[in-house]
Design brief:
By secondary structure, the chain is α+β, with helices and mostly antiparallel strands. About 25% of the residues lie in helices and about 30% in strands. It is globular. It starts with a helix and ends with a strand. About 15% of the residues have low confidence. It comes from Pseudomonas muyukensis.
Amino acid sequence: MRRLLLALPFALLPLAVAHAHDDHDHDHAHGTLGAHEHGVAKLNAVLDGNTLELALDSPAMNLVGFEHTPSSDADKAKVAAARQQLEQPLKLFGLAPAAACKDDAQELQSPLFEASEQHGHSHADINAHYQLACAAPAKLSQIDLGPLFKAFPQTQKIIVQLIGPNGQKGVEATPAKAVVAF
């Protein structure tokens, strides 16, 4: 599953650097240069043959409303609910039904999911990697991120990097402009 996604950061590095220099909202106090910006998530989407790989990287604040170790029952319930939603990529990413994509593999990572091992992470992220098998990938011309924005309303912008049959491009998706085309 990591075959394509491991190469992706290197292929997209020039775009990420350009974005970091254009982004004047970066967090100077923490020196992150926008790497961890509340309200903003990153999505890498790679369509290669019949395989669609999606990698979502988001501050936990966007998905659960906090980043501290979940200690109260309410916080633990929010983490569990977010994880349950993230385990259903076909409900979060609107894909053309004609493409007949099925969830093949997934991996969710966050210090919040291993709360008992976590000690004071101040900027917790949630990473979700999906591999989908699509019977008719030619029918997959776009991804609708509307369901993702609706499920996690604190997410205000998703920086999307797409690699597909038409090449590579970067776009920004918002709740008002949630459909991104390959």
